[in-house]
Amino acid sequence: MAEIAFMVPGVPVGKGRPRASKTKAGVRMYTPAKTVSYEAVVAHAGRQAMAGRDPEQGALAVVLSIVVPIPASWSGAKQERAAFGLIMPTTKPDIDNIEKAIFDALNGICWRDDVQVTDVMKIKRYGRQPGVRVTIKPLTSEA
Predict the structure, then answer these.
(1) How many CB atoms lie under 10 A from the CB of residue 49?
(2) Which residues span the domain enclosing 43?
(3) What pLDDT, in 10s, does the model give residues 23-71?
(4) What's the DSSP call for residue 68?
(5) Which of 8, 14, 27, 108 could disulfide-pair with 132, CB 3.0 to 4.6 Å?
């Protein structure tokens, strides 16, 4: 497999915790709708990038370049500093929860299972165009 890179458009969403609701039969666990919706967007972008190829079988390295929106309530000067990387996004969503949502969404699409990912680099910055740039690189592994 050659390197694959694609963009997941929109505001990044972290993987939500499973929720529970009572039913007549007991308790039903479910994934929050926001997480389900975001994972569908990620899966669609992954399918387009794979262009009909089978999921990768071996060890992989993944780079996630996460861009979150600059708060509209900030002054113009502060927004400019954020856009130039002078202010870091230390607010939710957590970088590891974004990673989890993306990795789970790409299971069976870009890789068989996310256990194949052995190397990860991720950055989170403010930007005017929110989204996540996903780059997947195959790694050679000797048995």
Answers:
(1) 18
(2) 4-138
(3) 888 888 777 888 899 999 999 999 999 999 999 999 999 999 999 999 9
(4) E
(5) 8
Tokens of 6: 């694609």
Report the DSSP beta bridge partners of residue 69.
127
Tokens 């993944």: give the residue: 62
The token pair that represents 140 in the structure block: 């050679």
The predicted-structure confidence for 86-129, as pLDDT tens digits, reads as follows 999 999 999 999 999 999 999 999 999 999 999 999 999 999 99
Closest CA to 42 of 13, 85, 79: 13
What residues contact residue 24 under an 8 Å CB cut-off, 6+ apart?
Answer: none
Residue spans of beta strands (DSSP E) within 35-110: 60-69
Cα angle: 6, vertex 89, 7; to 5 degrees? 5
CATH number for the domain that contains residue 129: 3.30.1330.70
pLDDT beyond 70 at 1:
no
Number of separate domains in the chain: 1
